[in-house]
Automatic annotation (TrEMBL):
SUPFAM superfamilies: Immunoglobulin. One of its GO terms (biological process) is cell adhesion. One of its GO terms (molecular function) is sialic acid binding. The chain crosses the membrane at residues 110-133. Residues 158-193 are annotated as: Disordered. It is found in: Membrane. Residues 182-193 have a biased composition (Basic and acidic residues). It is a single-pass membrane protein. Its main location: membrane. This is SIGLEC family like 1. Keywords: Membrane, Transmembrane, Transmembrane helix. One of its GO terms (cellular component) is plasma membrane. The gene is SIGLECL1.
Length: 193
């Protein structure tokens, strides 16, 4: 009795290495081939980063691949079972796992950013101090000059004498008696004119 190759079981796990397994059933017993990124990976071969192990117990064919290095972004992994009656395959899209150092990298970058920001703010502050001091001195000099010139309205108000609301007392006039002869002389002069 003939049967095309069929994938009956597959699994992947990730700990220190990525480990994927495929189990095919077929009559005759299927052969299993792994493909990574479109290139075939040899059965029972050991690469520096890829290790493939296949076991055949008729009518079953089992194969396992382990990757010790992180794959490149969006690498495809294909497990293919084939016999003369048909082919069946499982495609797995590999994504690089998140780095365990990501939180440490983030914190390091955050601390560096804070330190560099503080340095820049300090330098900017020290560069602006002379300008701020010059501005303050100019304002003080203008105020001092205004006080000296008496142009300041506050100073003028303080310097003006305060007017009392009491009415002034009339001045007393003094009358000095004149002699009668002087008055007559003045009258005679007026009559002659």
């Amino acid at each position: 009795q003939m049967a095309p190759a069929r994938l009956l079981y597959s699994s992947c796990s990730l700990e220190k290495t990525l480990l994927c397994s495929c189990s095919f059933y077929g009559i005759p017993t299927p052969s299993v081939q792994w493909w990574m990124g479109g290139a075939p990976v040899g059965a029972n071969s050991v690469d520096s980063s890829v290790h493939v192990t296949s076991t055949i117990i008729a009518p079953w064919a089992n194969s396992t691949i382990s990757l010790t290095e992180q794959p490149k972004m969006s690498t495809s992994l294909l497990c293919e079972g084939k016999n003369q009656n048909g082919t069946h395959a499982l495609s797995i899209l590999l994504m690089p796992r998140k780095s365990s150092f990501l939180p440490q990298t983030f914190m390091k970058g955050l601390i560096q950013g804070v330190v560099y920001g503080a340095i820049v703010a300090s330098l900017l502050f020290f560069c602006l101090i002379p300008l701020m001091v010059k501005h303050i001195r100019m304002k003080l000099a203008k105020k001092i000059a205004a006080v000296k010139a008496g142009k300041s309205p506050k100073v003028k108000a303080c310097q003006e004498p305060k007017l009392s609301l009491k009415p002034k007392e009339p001045e007393k006039s003094t009358i000095t008696p004149s002699s009668e002869s002087e008055i007559l002389k003045k009258q005679d002069k007026g009559a002659h004119e």
